Structure formats: structure tokens, C-alpha cells
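Sorry, explain these C-alpha cells?

***
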Amino acid sequence: MTVRKKIVLIVFVVISLFLSFNLLVDYFYVLGSLEDLEMDEGKKGLKRAALAIDRDLEHLSLLCYDWAEWDDSCHFIEDRNEVFINSNLLENTFLHNHLALLFFIDKVGQVVWGSCYSDELGEFISITEFPGQKWSAGHPLLQHSQNDSIVKGYLQTSAGVLMLASRPVVPSSGSGGIRGTLIMGRLVCDRCIELMRERTQLGLEIWSINDETLLPVDCYAKDQLKAETPTFFVRNQDWIFGYTVLDDIYSRPVLLLRTKSWRTIYKRSRNGIMVGMLCSLLAAIVVGFLISYLLHRSISRPLACFVKIIADIGASEDIRKIDVHPESDEIRSLQQEFNQMVQRLHDDSRKRESAEVDLRDSEARLSAVLDAAPDGILTIDAAGIIKTVNQAAVEMFGYEVNYLPGKSILILSEPQRQTLLHEEIIKFRKDPESSVFSFGVEVSGVRRDGSHILLHCKIGRVEVEGADLFICIVRDVSGLKEIHEKLMRTKHLASIGEMGASIAHEIRNPLAGISGAVQVLTDMSSVERPEYETLLEISRLTGCIEETVCQMLEYAKDWQPEPSLVSIVNLINEIISVYSRQIDLQNITIRVEGSSEIRALIDPELIGQVLVNLMANAVAACGGLYGELVWRVERNLREVYISLQDNGSGIDDDVQKSVFKPFFTTRENGNGLGLAICQKIIERHNGSITLESEVNVGSKVTIILPKSKFLRA
């Protein structure tokens, strides 16, 4: 973006922010204040309307008081004379005083005289809420305990909502007590509402609370009115509506009162703000144009010329060729500094080119030395990310030359050991002397194809540009390790086999004689004789010795597997089926995970013997309690994994180291050859067997068979 465009953009942004700020102030502060003012006026109007209807009720109460204090009214309640009726209780009385109801009631609630009148019909009517005979003594309009008491309010009737006033009838002298009650009522009609509009100069509406003609907005406002919110306001673009509710003589809502105020202030102010904003916008555009023009003439245009000259210099082969003619003193100073900078860059460029040539030569020599090294060499940063690898490391792990840089060192480790390796790397980073990597350690690596490789690893640390860089030297010792272990195991097993076979042959013949003699003595003896139990115990013990001798001979065998293509999962299921018929597995849950399509070229009888032995050990580890055994069959490109997981008692770390040694056992009646035979069978299949266990958690035995042939069905 050019400087000129930036100047225009900045001016536009400043003007926009200024106008936006003014608009926000006008709308949220000025208009907000005007809205609050209009709301206050609406509240005052609603209050004035409520006072107006209260004044009408008070006027009715005063009229009722004048009649109740009249001695003729007192005499009429006592003697019910016709003269009073013919003189005062006429139709004109109702019309002149705008009355809809007039009742005289004595002290016991008996109606002395009472009538209801309709202005609209021009005749006397009956209202069911005001009976003409006897009133209940508990009626709210009859509750007068003192001469000056008053009851007034509203009541929903069959004729409409009535405005009522009730006064006790007493002599004008005030003596003699209450003689009865005078009740007057006016209908809250359209004429009454129109008179209140004229007096208050408000848009006033009054409805019965149960009026079915109410608009939805009026119904919504009615629902919002409660004891804690006696007023409610609704406003739109043109009007402010105020609502309140009037209660009847039973303290129940009976009338919905609404006032309507025209929003003159708000509308005129809003229009004024819009006109002001348009004027401000026009003024801002003019000012912005002038500012942009002046900035372009004084800054943008000289800088554009200078940029063009610099571009010409960049296109020239000779960086020292500078021909600048600035138009201002500031630009001239900039040109002088630029000339000096270009000269320094020219000198530094030549030095850097020479240094780069030397560096490339040095890197080439170092790379040749590292690639010629027989051991794998990797450099790793503090986060465990591989930076460089030599050719030996690439060939060792089976990756391309450019694949490993940028990857984590953990991808070269077994998944189940990555956490341990990560912790050891962190430990080495903090304290190299305390880590096994400082003096070399054997670790298991993983090639790209998933196969395992045994490595001797040693790590050193150097500081490069203020950051730690770790140099990892790895050597493939898989072949040496395997050869050494197999040689030692072969010697050991050969000696044990020879010894076991020799001892077994020497023991077997005498043992057969002992067993036969014991059987003869047992048959000759009777159950009641004391030596009978001893003979049975001797027979059982000779049986145990016989079993041990057989296993020793079995261990001494030189098995030659007869392989066939077998589904590992199907073989496990067959073993579970046969084993469950021999031993009660009601407290044991067995689950097999894996695909039946995974097949291996194995001797099913020998591998089946191994799997039976492992399952028997797992069931025994559960101790007769509820147990769970999980068989898992998995594979990768080179190997197949068969594992058995139990939740039994587990094995101590010290014991784990010796479980595959011949004659090592922790059971009272064990001979220690079961797992040793299993290991020998697996090794005859060129595989391996390992044990992982944790006390009170369980054990996991894993068999790894190399890829002979694995096919899909």
C-alpha cells in the first residue's frame, strides 16, 4: 500500500471514528436522556389520570355524605315515608347526579329503598349484585363503625364496573348513633372517561380488567402489573403507553387504566441529530480532502520519488550508483544517510559472501565425516525435536533422509515406552549427570516398518547460539545382544536338559517300584487301619514326583514344531471351551479381542500347550474371586502379538525376573517348569515371551512371534 493510500485511509478512519463517536453520544446519551424525560412525563400523566378518577370517586363520596347527613334521610330509614320518595327518589335525581345506583339500607341489612338506573336505556334496571331485599351483614359496603366512616371503591357488576361510595346515615346533630347505610354508585362509562380526558388533556382509556376486546399489547401489560410493579410502560416510535390497575372493594383488580403520550421530543430530537450528522459528514469529507491533498503534496509525493530512485538502484548491478534529487531538506538528509548505508552494505556483502563460502566448505566436510561414521548420530533440541541425522541413522531406522528432521525423537521409541523416554530426556536436560543417557544405556527402538531394534544410546549436550543442543549417538546392538543371550541360554538349557534327563531316568524306575509297592500295601490295608492315610499320602507324593519327572523330560525335549496356518483367535476360543469344561470358571470373565483373520504359521499343539499354561496361571492368580481375563491378538508388518491380561494378585518385581527360570516357583506344590517350557516352545518358533505385573493390580503376558506367514482368509 502506498503512502498516499495510507494517508487517505488514516484520514478516513479518523473521520469515521469521530462521526461514530458523535453518533454514539447522540443516540445513547442525548436520546437516552430525552427518552428518560419522556418516560418521566409519561409517569406524571399516568399519575394525573389516576388522580382524576380518584377525584370522581371522591366527588361521589361527598355527594353520598351530603345525603347521609340529611335529617330527612335519617327519618326516611326509620319511617319509610312516601313523601321522601316522591320528593327525592325520582328519575331526575339519577339523571342530575349521574347516578346508576342508590340504596338506603337499615342497621340490620334490610333494604329500605333501592334502585338502579341506566342512562343509556333511560329506565330503571336490576343489577344482580345488589339485591332488593336483604343484604349480608358482612357486606363490605355496610361496614361502618363510626359516624364519619366511609367505604368507597369499584365493583364489577353485570351492568359494568361501578364507582361506589357508602356512608353511615346519622342525624345532622351527630347524636343517636348510626341509623343505616346510604350507597351511591356511578357507572364507569364512555361519557365518564371522556370527561376525564377533557380534564386531564391525556389520551386516557379505561377498561374492565376482564374486557375481551383488549389488544395483545394491553393484555401483555396487564400481565406485567403486580403488587411490586403497580405501573408498566410500553413505547414504540410514536407513543408511550402507561398502564396501572385499580382494585375493587374486595382488593381485586377490576379496572385497567392506560394513558397515551405522543413522543414529540424524541422524534424531533432524532430528526435534528440526523441533520446534524449529515452536516458533520459533509464538513468531515471536505476537511479530509484538504488534509489528504496537503499531506500528499508535502510528504507522499517526495517519498514516491525517492522510492522510485531506490527501486532503480535495486535494479542496477552496481549498488553504489546513486542519483537522488530530493525536494525537501528532510528528504535530502535521508538520501545522505542512505548513501552511507548502501556503502556499508556493499562492504558487508563481500565479507558475508566470503564467509558463506568457507562455511559451506566446512559443512560439507563435517557432513561427509558424519555420514561416514558407522554409528547413528542425531542432534536434538531442548523440546526433543530432531534437527539433523547422519546416513547411518537413516539406514538404521529405515526412513528417508529428509523425513526425520522436524519430528519428535519419541517416534523412534516403542509407544508403551514413550512416556518413560520423555521423562528421561527431561531429566537429562535438567541434570545430565543423573541420567542414564550420560554414560550410555541400552534402549529399544522402532523402525519405520514397526520392527524393534536394540540400541546402545549415549547423549551429550552442547550450547549453540545460547540454546542447548543434544547429540545422540546410537549403535545397533540387536545382533550382538541376541547372539549373546541365545548362546548363554543355549548353554544353560543344555546343561539343565542333560541334568534333568539324567536325573529323571535315574528316578523314574525306582519311583515306579515305590508306587507299585505303595499301591499293593494300600490294597492290602483297610480304611480303619492307622497306616491307611499314610499310604495314601505316600501315593499322592509319589504322583507329584512322577509329574515333576515327566515335566523335566518334557523340558529336556528338543521340540521341532510342525507348523500349519492357524487362526490365533480361533485357537484361543477352542482352548477356552476345553478348559472351561475341566475347571469351574463361574467367577471368571474371559474376553477375546482381535480379528479371527489374523493367522500364523505355528504348531497348534505346542502353542496351545503354552496358552493353556498361561490361562491356568491367570485363573490361579485371581484366587477364586471374581476375575477378568482379556486375550488380545494384534499384528504389524513384521510381528504378531498375543497377550493375556488378568486382574489377579500380581507379582513382585524381584519375582518377575526369575519366573522363566527352570525350577523357580512360588507355589507350594509347583515345580517351576511350566513357564520355562512355555518360553522354550516360543523360542522354537523364533519368538519371545515377556511378563509385566503390578502387585494388587494384575499381570500381562505378551507373546511376540516373528512374521513367518500372515494371510487374510
